[in-house]
Each structure stands twice: as C-alpha cells, then as structure tokens.
C-alpha cells in the first residue's frame, strides 16, 4: 500500500482511551495522490482513522484554506456520523469547504482574531464544453451551494435568516471569529497568535485580508519546496516499484 511507503497524512495527537485529536492543517483533497503535503486531508484517511476511534470524543483542530468541495462534504458527513462528542477549534483559518467541516462539531470554538470564510462554490473545467455542458455545470454548482447552505442553516444563531448568509456567500466574506459568532453558534475565545496557514487555494480568493496575505507570502515558498520533494519521492518510489495501488 502507498501509505506503507509515504508518511501518513492524517495528523493525530494526544489519543487516549476516551478522546482523540484530529488536525486539518492543510488542503482538503480527494485522495492520497492529491495530498502533496503531510497536512493535506482526504476522506478515506478520515474514515480509516475514525474506524479505530469509535465512540471516543474528538478534538478537531482546523487551520485550512479549503479545497475540494466534494471531498470536504464527504469528510463533513463522515464526522457527523461519529458518535463521540466533537469539539472544533479554529486555530487560524477555516476557509471555503473547511468552514463546512468546522460545522461538523457539536461545539465550535474560534478565537476572536481567527478567520471563517464563506463563498460561492466554483468548479474547475478542463477540455471542450458546449453550452449544454456549461449549463449542466452551472446547475451542478447550484446544487452544491444548496447543500452547503443547508449546513450553514443548521448552525445559525437564532434570528439570523439564511438569506443573509446567501448574500455573504456571494460576496466572499472573511469573518473574524468575533464577527462569525454574530451569525453562527460559535463560542468565541480570547485573541491568540494565529497559526500560519499555507494553501494552494489562497491565490483564487479575491478578498483575503491583507494581514493574512503578508503571513501567507512568508510561508508559500516552504510549501512549494515540500511539494517538489514529495514529487521526487513519488518518482523514486515508482522507479523502485514500491508505490502500489
């Protein structure tokens, strides 16, 4: 198996008989081939981890710029089915589909200076498309958005209408933790040093706060170097015949 040759991407710490900790500190991807750093997460790794932690409470730590909406929705549903009590801590950023994953928790704790970003889903298209296919792609995005909005709706504070969230979605809204708590059922923690976060998706966002951009610029080269090393590792394993399906 590939996981016998590569480092496990799932970050697990402080596992006890009654609780375990789970970290989302990278991008949300579809499978291990898309996971270019050890921090990137994908549904199968989460499913396999939870199979060994049945009934335990979970502490879930999030600092992610988002990723695949399909993978993220799968992870959300996997976490929701877990029977233990789930506490989510937004350590720095819960952006895009990572904001949906955050809402799988029974309790969400966010520092007042962390960020929670929501936006309309998008779809990357490759190849040639006629008008019918483009219309279908648009309809698919509308259905995806409806699913995301249903998750947000289930976690709104009393008195907040989902139409307000739809507008925030259209605008690509970066809430601070304090601002997010005005809309969602979050517990606000005191201001903390926000953990650094690197994501392949940051350059796709239009309204990222400048304070985040400055931190991201410092860390982007590190991820690029890690990606190059990981590509070389996979090439070496393929040459040795050690990377199997």
Automatic annotation (TrEMBL):
Database matches in Pfam families: CLP_protease (PF00574)
Protein name: ATP-dependent Clp protease proteolytic subunit
Molecular-function annotations in GO: ATP-dependent peptidase activity; ATPase binding; serine-type endopeptidase activity
Similarity remark: Belongs to the peptidase S14 family.
GO biological process entries: protein quality control for misfolded or incompletely synthesized proteins
Keywords noted in UniProt: Cytoplasm, Hydrolase, Protease, Serine protease
GO cellular component: endopeptidase Clp complex
Species of provenance: Clostridioides difficile
Gene3D superfamilies: 2-enoyl-CoA Hydratase, Chain A, domain 1 (3.90.226.10)
């Amino acid at each position: 198996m590939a996981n016998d040759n590569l480092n496990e991407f799932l970050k697990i710490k402080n596992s006890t008989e009654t609780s375990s900790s789970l970290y989302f500190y990278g991008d949300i991807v579809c499978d291990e081939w898309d996971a270019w750093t050890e921090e990137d997460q994908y549904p199968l790794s989460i499913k396999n981890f939870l199979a060994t932690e049945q009934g335990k409470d979970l502490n879930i730590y999030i600092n992610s710029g988002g990723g695949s909406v399909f993978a993220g929705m799968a992870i959300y549903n996997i976490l929701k089915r877990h029977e233990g009590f789930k506490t989510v801590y937004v350590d720095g950023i819960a952006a895009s589909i990572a904001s949906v994953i955050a809402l799988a928790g029974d309790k969400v704790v966010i520092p007042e200076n962390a960020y929670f970003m929501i936006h309309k889903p998008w779809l990357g298209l490759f190849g040639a498309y006629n008008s019918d296919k483009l219309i279908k792609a648009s309809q698919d995005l509308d259905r995806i958005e409806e699913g995301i909005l249903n998750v947000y709706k289930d976690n709104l504070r009393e008195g907040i209408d989902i139409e307000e969230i739809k507008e925030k979605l259209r605008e690509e809204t970066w809430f601070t933790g304090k601002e997010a708590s005005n809309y969602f059922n979050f517990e606000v923690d005191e201001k903390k040093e926000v953990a650094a976060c690197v994501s392949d998706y940051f350059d796709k966002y239009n309204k990222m706060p400048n304070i985040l951009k400055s931190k991201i610029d410092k860390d982007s080269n590190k991820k690029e170097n890690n990606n190059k090393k990981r590509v070389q590792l996979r090439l070496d394993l393929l040459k040795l015949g050690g990377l199997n399906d």
